[in-house]
Amino acid sequence: MSLETFHASSALSMGVELELQLVGEHDRDLASAATDLLELAQRTRFPGDIKPEMTDCMIEVATDIQDHHASLLKQLEAMRDVLLAASARLNVSLCGGGTHPFQHWTERRIFSTPRFQHLSGLYGYLAKQFTVFGQHVHIGMPDADSALHVLHALNRYVPHFIALSASSPFSQGSDTLFDSARLNSVFAFPLSGRAPFVLDWARFERDYFSKMEDTGIVRSMKDFYWDIRPKPEYGTIELRVCDTPLTVERAAAIAVYLQALCCSILAGDEPDPLEDDYLVYTYNRFQACRFGLDGLMVHPRSHAALPLRDDIAQTLERLAPAADALGSRAALESLHRMVRGGGNDATRLRAVHARSRNLLAVVDDAVAAFAQ
């Protein structure tokens, strides 16, 4: 096999994928209900795409191609409403959040598809531990070289998306002290991390992908679990660092924040990416996972340390003209209010636990948030 041809798409078009938790009505543990929910949702003409994920207590939903915040949010709300109606018939609840607070990975079952069974055989217990839940955002690129340029120019903003979406403070019954514990599970896979610094698609195919393919390790871009990866069959770049937010409103806002950043990069308003930008990448990524909006980040060019919260707020303000042109000003303002006035979803879930001292109440809150 060879790398798929990059099919250029409408620049700045969007698609959102959400991995969702299926939880029991009474015990609030994860429920093995994916097969029944998928069948029921498909019979009701699900307004988007819906498919299984690694274990049978999770599903993934995806929007159609969208251009604007309003249409994106409308479809996310429609998908949510169909899922809520279907899940109620099965006595199952749905919610976002990057991890389930108290499920045990040993009790999970791999969904019965050839790919998931293959991955289970390859990765062993990591496959069941991969019962974590993320939001992926696709942004359309006009050509392959632009896709690589934008992908690497986004490297300094990856901590923004981790902190804004972080919703996985609890795992296996404990407070992890991380705002996003989910990404620790992703990082365990051997082909995770960052893409190699190549800005020319022909060179990427010749000097990287073909060599990796020759090793027998990879067969397609699906085999890479990078934080951001190109998707040549869609003509997009795909951001993969986000936890699934608790609400579809926040999921849509995060998506259009990425759209506005990509707009700025394609317009030439951002510095050209350099390999040395990645010197601080892993540190900044850790800070966002561990501390969320209260983390620090080191600027890749000036090497000045600054609060992540402030860097996000300043970026949102700078992107206001792009947001106006894209019709997403209100969505970005909602993120600005969160950054300046409070916390992310991890903060919310910890507050529920502090009041109740009960992880069941944390799941209840996530279920209620998704249904809003």
Can you walk through the features of this model?
The chain has 372 residues and is an alpha+beta fold. The protein has a single domain, classed as 2-Layer Sandwich (Creatine Kinase, Chain A, domain 2). Helices cover 46% and strands 15% of the residues. The chain is built from 15 helices and 13 strands. Strands 1, 2, 3, 4, 5, 10 and 11 form a 7-stranded antiparallel β-sheet that branches. Strands 6-7 form a two-stranded antiparallel sheet. β6 and β7 form a beta hairpin.
Q: Which spans of ≥5 residues are poorly predicted at pLDDT below 50?
A: none
CATH second-level architecture: 2-Layer Sandwich
Q: Give the tally of structural domains.
A: 1
- Fraction of helical residues: 40-55%
End-to-end span in angstroms? Answer: 46 Å
Total DSSP helices: 15
Q: Could you name the CATH topology?
A: Creatine Kinase, Chain A, domain 2
Determine and state the CATH class. Alpha Beta
Strand segment count:
13
Strand content: 15-25%
What is the typical, i.e. mean, pLDDT? 95
Largest sheet: 7 strands, antiparallel
Q: Which structural class should the secondary elements be placed in?
A: alpha+beta
- What is the approximate shape? globular
Radius of gyration over all CA atoms, rounded: 20 Å
- Series of secondary-structure elements, N-terminal to C-terminal: EHEEHEHHEHHEEHEHEEEHHEEHHHHH
